[in-house]
Structures are given as structure tokens and as C-alpha cells.
Specification:
With about 240 residues, the protein is mostly helical. It is built from 10 helices and no strands.
């Protein structure tokens, strides 16, 4: 975050818009179909079943529950509601941004039996697998694992630094591969989800969660407790060091 500013987010969004425009014009569909056909043809058990299990890293519910548990522990430990607000914000942020794009793009997944399934804005994609673009697996993976890393940095302090690269790099790579290989999404779906997920993660990182101002009526508010002479609640590690 210290090295790259908003211009980088604009570049990522421009890449996403360009990819969407190319797909809408009928380009890159042959690439998606070729990758999908290869994946359907190469499904030995030694690759299929491990990929199926590892793909759960991109499921939103398990990682959300893990983050929720960490946030509730921090709320209990510090009497601070802000970690819980972070988890709620992450969930709503993904839903509000990703769901309309999926709805408007009307693209079927590779496993669909409908005609022209790889096309965007496909009128036949009215039921079943029509929420393929962009890949929600990839968005979940990028944004939720950043949220988990931030919560862990508050729980265990500087020791979380050892987890920064594994949590922010390994899950997206694994989920990208497994989602495409298992034909849950087209190749370009996953590329679009990765681009969008990075942008959403960077926006989340810019919010000063450690010092987020809260109204006095909000429960578990350390600011209100300090203002009334209560004991100061321990604070998480400096977020700027976490996301830098």
C-alpha cells in the first residue's frame, strides 16, 4: 500500500473493463473453451480429488466463519467491536460489488448444458449456472484471506508477519488452478475475479480499522470507555505495518 497508490487500482479496473469488453465482443471465447475442454479430458483421480478438496479454500462461508471466530475472540478479549465490523464489512462489500456484476454479465459456467455457454450477456443463461463472471471463488480468496491475515496480526502481533505471504499468495494460486481445472469457472472468469478481488482487498486495507471512529452509543467501544474514564482497551498492531 505504501508503494502503490490509487493509480494501480485504476489500472486493475481498466484491465477488468478491457477483459469484459473483449469477452462481450466474442474474443477470448476460444481460449476459454479450449482450456475447459482440456480440463474435462484430463481428470485422473490423483488430480481431481485433491483439487476438489483444495478448492474449498475459495468457498466464502468456511473462511468467513473462521474470521468471525477470530473477531469474536478479539471482541471478548479487548471489548472492541471493530474486528467484528471488519468481518461484517468484508461480507457485505463482496456481496454488494460482486453480485450485480454476476447478475448483469449473464454468463454460464463451463458445466452448463445451455448453448453458447461461454458468451457474456447470454439471453439463454437465465437459470442454473448463470453467475459465472467474475469468479466469486477468486474474489473471496483474495479479500477474505487478507481479512484473516489482518485479524491474525491483531491476535498474535508481529508473529503474523510470517504468515503474510502464505496467506496472501498461496490460496489465490491454489483456488485459481482448482476452479479452472474443475470447470467451476472459465479461465477468464478467474482472471476477472483475481483483478476485482485485489481491488476490493486494497480498498479494505485503506480503512483505518485500528482507529476507526465509532459513535458513543455503539457497544464495546474503547473510545467511549476511555472518554468516561474507563480502562484503555489494548489495541491491535499498527495496520500500516500489516498491509505495507
Amino acid at each position: 500500500m505504501r508503494r502503490l497508490g490509487w493509480w494501480f487500482d485504476g489500472l486493475l479496473l481498466a484491465a477488468l473493463a478491457g477483459l469484459t469488453a473483449l469477452l462481450a465482443a466474442g474474443h477470448l471465447l476460444d481460449v476459454d473453451l479450449a482450456v475447459s475442454d482440456w480440463a474435462f479430458d484430463v481428470q485422473p483421480a490423483v488430480l481431481h480429488y485433491p483439487s476438489y478438496v483444495l478448492n474449498y479454500l475459495g468457498q466464502g462461508t468456511p473462511i468467513m466463519v473462521l474470521c468471525l471466530v477470530a473477531a469474536l475472540w478479539l471482541l471478548y478479549k479487548w471489548r472492541d467491536v471493530r474486528p467484528l465490523i471488519l468481518v461484517v464489512f468484508t461480507q457485505l462489500f463482496i456481496l454488494v460489488v460482486v453480485t450485480p456484476i454476476k447478475e448483469l454479465s449473464s454468463r454460464d459456467a463451463p458445466r452448463s448444458a445451455l448453448p453458447n455457454k461461454a458468451e457474456l450477456f447470454n439471453e439463454a443463461a437465465a437459470h442454473g449456472y448463470n453467475w459465472s463472471y467474475p469468479s466469486g471463488h477468486m474474489v473471496n480468496t483474495v479479500v477474505w484471506y487478507f481479512t484473516l491475515y489482518l485479524l491474525l496480526s491483531w491476535l498474535i502481533g508481529e508473529r503474523a508477519g510470517r504468515l503474510r505471504r502464505p496467506l496472501r499468495i498461496a490460496p489465490p494460486i491454489i483456488v485459481f488452478w482448482t476452479t479452472v481445472y474443475l470447470n467451476y469457472h472459465w479461465l477468464t472468469d478467474s482472471i476477472a475475479g483475481l483483478l476485482l478481488g485485489i481491488v476490493l482487498g486494497r480498498v479494505t486495507a485503506r480503512i483505518p480499522w485500528r482507529t476507526l471512529p465509532l459513535p458513543s452509543w455503539v457497544p464495546f467501544n474503547p473510545q467511549a470507555s476511555a472518554g468516561t474514564g474507563g480502562a484503555q482497551t489494548p489495541q491491535p498492531a499498527d495496520q500500516h505495518r500489516v498491509v505495507g
